[in-house]
């Protein structure tokens, strides 16, 4: 008799390094995905990570965790998260990783699409906007089904710093970093809010009023965060693990959650500018509706002139990198 129990949701994570293993841990603790599998070319590493994770299963929602150096472990996954590849060494930018990580994608992506033909692909490997575009082209999948973690992490760094400056709960700060997950990213100050109050109108005794200096310091800190963490401990993992688990939850639970993920923009804009200013044929982050199909739509978010110009500059930077890779 055919089973009547609902199909379990399966997450496949490619790369069991600092980021991949922490995504698995965050998913496990939050109860995202009933089957989690990790694949890595380093068999000892993936087996050790999976053993350690399995020893914590008693304390979290029901799940199974497997790992292998055989890509077949990813078969029929609902979402494939790619974290494999080179990471920044102190002094390197994310863009410096483009060539090496594109080479890894050329091999991996076609095999993953064959093994998990219904999966949404979620790219985390850096430079994430470039790698998302590369994965989209190599996969042949519809644009909705290939996305990157984008500036979800940068936006959470941004919100944390605003919350700390104004002494309010981070959950009540609504503020977004758009564009490249990297040096040309754009803080959307004009739409930032605490509760329902626009940040530039925020002035509450004991909870601050944001000065120009505060804004500059906060944005410098957001951009500099990865460098600071990498210098101190070699990799960033906890916040990206939680951010990625949140994106996975939005996909697997069909949440229609608004997140600044990276996705292919087509004739996006004009964002307050002229029609010729529209952003086209590049992956970058703007707030998007994320659900079981992946990215349903990129929202035409309100931006002032400076923000739109910043976003177009970011698009140009990413496009140059994509072109230099022959895509
Ligand atoms: P890491 O070196 O700890 O792990 C990378 C893992 O990938 C290693 O275990 C390695 O064996 C594996 N690997 C390499 N080639 C592979 C292949 N062909 N198939 C399968 N596995 C392979 O690095 P990390 O700190 O986990 O970072 C991983 C990536 O994530 C880097 O590119 C890093 O820059 C990126 N990252 C992105 C964000 C973001 O916000 N998008 C945040 C942090 C890190």
Overall description:
Helices cover 39% and strands 17% of the residues. By secondary structure, it is of the alpha/beta class. Strand 1, helix 1 and strand 2 form a beta-alpha-beta unit. Helix 1 packs across helix 7. The site of nicotinamide-adenine-dinucleotide has 32 residues, from helix 1 and helix 3.
Question: What brief labels describe this structure?
Answer:
three-stranded antiparallel β-sheet, 8 helices, alpha/beta, 327 residues, binds nicotinamide-adenine-dinucleotide, single chain, six-stranded parallel β-sheet
A few lines on this structure:
The protein is an alpha/beta fold and 327 residues long.
Main beta sheet, described?
6 strands, parallel
Bound molecules: nicotinamide-adenine-dinucleotide
Helix/sheet category: alpha/beta
Order of helices and strands: EHEHEEHEHEHEEEEEHHEEEEEH
What's the pLDDT, averaged over the residues?
Answer: 95
**Beta content:** 15-25%
What best-fitting shape do the alpha-carbon axes yield?
globular
Helix count equals 8
Radius of gyration: 20 Å
Strand order of the largest sheet: 3-2-1-4-5-6
Distance between the termini: 49 Å
The total beta strand count reads: 16
- Roughly what percent helix? 25-40%
SSE order and pairing:
Elements: E1 10-14, H1 18-30, E2 35-39, H2 43-54, E3 64-68, E4 79-82, H3 98-115, E5 120-123, H4 128-139, E6 146-148, H5 152-166, E7 173-174, E8 177-178, E9 186-187, E10 193-194, E11 197-198, H6 212-233, H7 238-252, E12 257-259, E13 262-265, E14 282-285, E15 288-291, E16 294-298, H8 305-324
Parallel strand pairs: 1-2, 1-4, 2-3, 4-5, 5-6
Antiparallel strand pairs: 7-10, 8-9, 10-11, 12-15, 13-14, 15-16
This protein binds nicotinamide-adenine-dinucleotide.
The site of nicotinamide-adenine-dinucleotide (NAD) has 32 residues, from helix 1 and helix 3.
